[in-house]
Amino acid sequence: MDELDLKAAVEAILFASGDPVSAERIALVLDSDKDKILDIGQELAEEYETRKRGIRLVRLNDSLQLHSAPEYALEITRALEQRRAPKLSQASLEVLAIVAYFQPVTRAYIEQMRGLDSSYTVGVLSERGLIEPCGHLETIGRPTLYRTTELFLRTMGVSSLEEMPPLPEITGSDAVLQLQQKVEALKAAEEAKAAMERENEGADTV
Q: Is the pTM of this model over 0.85?
């Protein structure tokens, strides 16, 4: 492997990893030696900096890592924010709350709780990966049962359903409202946590 190919291979490995990779491991894979890989890392770092590239290469002891250029932190944040999934509608929150606290449930059960047709909303939540089919109810017509997914747990900021706040005894027309408030509170807390993390990351890059 010539010098140009070796440099390109190091760059590709670091880009694909995202995490620090030891020069020794890269050298082993590329049939080179550690010092040579560290020298190439230094060359790449200088190229990125002098040519005003959007990435930087840093050396961490005897490991190398690629990361974004700190001067573009604001642009990166704005771009990634625009790619975030749109917020859930009120109807979606209502359906999601019912599934979360009473799963597994059928669409008919959801509609009974809400008093509204929920076929479209159930479809939207399924497409977004927040709920999923998990079998059929053993009754006439064998309607599909739905449950929440691992993506739901990550979105809500909990690691298991046991971490969901306890649901008080509720009956009557305010049942769905209280369920919706529970899920909204969880989602708001997670969004606030994410916003704080992004703010801290931006401060670190200044």
A: no
